[in-house]
Amino acid sequence: MAWWLTVMLIVLILMILYCAFPTVWTRGFGRSMRTTGMDGTVSLTFDDGPNPTYTPRLLDALKAHDIQATFFVLSERALQYRDIVERMIAEGHDVQVHGSRHWFVPFLPPSAARVQCVGAAKALEQAFPLSVRVYRPTWGAANLASLFAVWRTGMILCTWNVMVGDWRVTEPNELVQRIVGKLQNQSVIVLHDSDHTFGAERGAPERVVQAIPGISEAVKSRGLRFVRICDCLGES
Ligand SMILES: [Zn+2]
């Protein structure tokens, strides 16, 4: 085999190991927290915020329906909109980490990948009275460096098992129907409270806010109750 072909093959194998395998491991093989693990419960989680347009109104809707949720926030936005995060905490919601910015982690070098998980968690803990133990990678995609950093620090990877395409503008009733179609005992539902992310349609979280009453009704009518991700971790 020509030397350059050997080099290319080695680079390709290293790239697959570093970029692709961790995401297949996390999402394809389900080697992450995807359910609450507690009988009779459902967890409502929101990614990509906080957002000054939608998150306060989402908090109003959650309060009106007595739901405590989990927010996987971006640390840079959390520091920008501190008052919103402080309100989340004051109202009993769980705040965990989604990254510092909404970057695609698999292609990041090790140091930048560590910033997205452990670094962003530390930034949140320094700014707020929080214990951040759970990381949900942006787009659910990790690389070897972030997977190793999470494992070494004892953090937990959390993805989801109910996703309904709410980043596109979708009528609230349709969102509720899609959730009802996938809802199970112990479901972890992912929704989004920001439309600033690449691929999100402007105004989509507006419908998410409007869907909260229907989601609440659907979950409670099945005899299920809402729990936060931090309630599902066992020892605290
Ligand atoms: Zn996201």
TrEMBL record:
CDD domains, sorted: CE4_NodB_like_3
Bilayer-spanning residue ranges: 6-25
Keywords: Membrane, Transmembrane, Transmembrane helix
Membrane listed as a keyword: yes
Pfam families the record matches: Polysacc_deac_1 (PF01522)
UniProt KW Membrane keyword: yes
Domain NodB homology positions: 40-227
InterPro entries tied to this protein: Glyco_hydro/deAcase_b/a-brl, NODB_dom, Polysacc_deacetylase_ArnD
Protein name: Polysaccharide deacetylase family protein
Source organism: Alicyclobacillus fastidiosus
